[in-house]
Design a protein that fits this description.
Elements: E1 12-13, H1 21-30, H2 44-55, H3 60-80, E2 84-89, H4 95-103, E3 109-114, H5 117-130, E4 139-140, E5 158-163, H6 173-186, E6 191-197, H7 202-209, H8 215-231, E7 240-247, E8 252-259, E9 263-267, E10 270-274, E11 279-286, H9 290-299, E12 303-309, E13 315-321
Parallel strand pairs: 1-4, 2-3, 2-5, 3-4, 5-6
Antiparallel strand pairs: 6-13, 7-8, 8-11, 9-10, 12-13
Helix pairs in contact: 2-8, 3-4
Bound molecules: N,N-dimethyl-L-histidine.
N,N-dimethyl-L-histidine binds near residues 53, 169, 170 and 283.
Length: about 325
């Protein structure tokens, strides 16, 4: 069997986290409405906590999306066609991607992009073993920033961006449109295969973000752990509570960390005061109807080509094209 090409072991590292962590959290915590960017959940430990969330009974998106993919992967591979370059934004452990890679017809290469370097390297090493003939070009970057994509050695017939997991739901509406426009430029003449979580019974959503084992709470508080460990802050975890709820008017689950008493936290040179009950907004997870998402996609230049859902219409996988 041929060995993995040398380029499959090369990492394109844009050092996404170091430059901005302190600046962004300081700014977010000093705003009148305190918030922290959700991308900072995903260091190595945070990514592992997220993987644990994906295994929870209450967290329906991952297994529902996987089931849709398993059922439809043949159809999807035919739509994507031969020699496509698969570019995955936020590749994580690339579990769903393996399904696609198994089904794709002679892919030109695979470009996994992730902010968590250790996990990216582990994933790439594992992929190299399973797919020795596939050229894998890993990129460590904050995928909302500007960075150059590597070019594979094989000819590319179509660029297809893969963005599963309904991560698009973690963008507010305007940034979502802006990001989709960025993807439209990347896959010009090709397409975008995207996972989109759908609006549903609020109770299902409530359980998914308030799991009985407290993994989501731990994931949420991991932001505080990171600031303590990496920036020398002195957050006391027991004085902050995980609070997640569905906001029906905005069509999103909101995740917050709520201060359980009046307190002052030190971060770098700054002293940050929290009142009892004051919240730090850590994440939004927007849910869409199919019509709402089609409208958002159209505003970014995409046409919805195919939509696959599960029988309960909890989740959708969609193929969008851009001329
Ligand atoms: C990554 N993202 C789509 C997840 C979500 O459901 O919004 C992150 C998450 N937050 C809490 N649980 C899962």
């Amino acid at each position: 069997m041929p060995k993995p090409s040398e380029s499959s072991l090369r990492l394109y590292d844009f050092e996404p986290q170091q430059k901005t962590f302190l600046g962004e959290v300081l700014q977010g915590l000093q705003d009148a409405r305190k918030e922290l960017p959700s991308k900072y959940f995903y260091d190595d430990i945070g990514s592992q906590l997220f993987e644990q969330i994906c295994e929870l009974d209450e967290y329906y998106p991952t297994r529902t999306e996987l089931a849709i993919m398993q059922e439809r992967v043949g159809e999807i591979a035919t739509l994507l066609g031969p020699n496509c370059l698969l570019i995955e934004y936020g590749s994580g452990s690339s579990t769903k991607t393996r399904l696609l890679l198994d089904a794709l017809h002679d892919p030109a290469g695979y470009v996994p992009i992730d902010i968590a370097k250790e996990q990216l390297l582990r994933t790439v090493a594992a992929l190299a073993e399973t797919y020795p003939c596939l050229e894998v070009l890993p990129v460590c970057a904050d995928y909302t920033s500007d960075f150059a994509l590597p070019v594979p050695s094989k000819p590319v017939r179509r660029r297809v961006v893969y963005f599963p997991g309904s991560t698009i739901g973690n963008f507010d509406r305007e940034p979502a449109q802006h990001f989709l426009r960025q993807l439209a430029r990347v896959c010009q003449g090709g397409g975008l295969l995207i996972g989109v979580d759908l609006k549903k019974d609020f109770n299902i959503l409530h359980r998914a973000y308030n799991d009985s084992q407290g993994v989501t709470a731990q994931f949420n508080k991991h932001l505080l752990v990171r600031m303590n460990e990496e920036l020398g802050a002195d957050f006391e975890l027991k004085h902050f509570g995980h609070y997640a709820f569905y906001n029906p008017t905005q069509g999103r689950v909101e995740m917050h960390l709520v201060s359980l008493r009046n307190q002052v936290v030190h971060l770098g040179e700054a002293e940050i005061a929290f009142k009892l009950g004051e919240s730090v907004w850590t994440e939004s997870s927007y849910k869409y109807t199919l019509a709402e998402f089609a409208q958002l996609a159209a505003s970014a230049g995409f046409t919805v080509e195919q939509v696959w859902t599960d029988a309960r219409q909890l989740f959708s996988v969609q193929y969008l094209t851009v001329g």
